[in-house]
Amino acid sequence: MAQEQTRKYKILVADDDPDILATMTMALGELNHTVLSASDGLTALDLAEAESPDIVVLDVMLPKRGGFQILQKLKGSPAMKGMRPLVCMVTGNEGMRHKEFAERHGVDDYLRKPFPIGRLLEIVRDFIAKLDKGIPNAK
To answer: What is the pLDDT of residue 1?
Structure first.
C-alpha cells in the first residue's frame, strides 16, 4: 500500500513553448502537488515572488526575462545549490557554456531538450525527497 503524501509542494514550470509547457505541467500535476505555469520570464518571476515555490523547472530561453536572470534572483551563487527553491533548468542548447553558467549560480539539475518526460519526473521526485528530509529554506 502506498504511503500517503504528507506535504504538498509548489512546483513552478516556465517554458515559452506551449506544447512543452503543457506536457511538463500535465506530467508534474500527476505527482499531486500544486503546479504553477508561466510562458515568459516576467510571469515566472512574479509567480516565484508571490507563491514561493519549492521547486522550479526553468527554461533557459524565455521572453521578457531570461531563465538565467530568474535563476540569479532565486539562487544567486553555487552556495545556494541544494537550497529552496530547488531549480532544474531545461534548454535546447547543446553547449557547455550555459550549463557552467547555471552551475555557477546554484542550479540543482540541468536537462537538455529533448528529454524523456520520465527523466524530468525522476528529477522532481528526487527534489521532493530532499524537501521531505527538510533541506534549508533559501528565502
So the answer is: 40
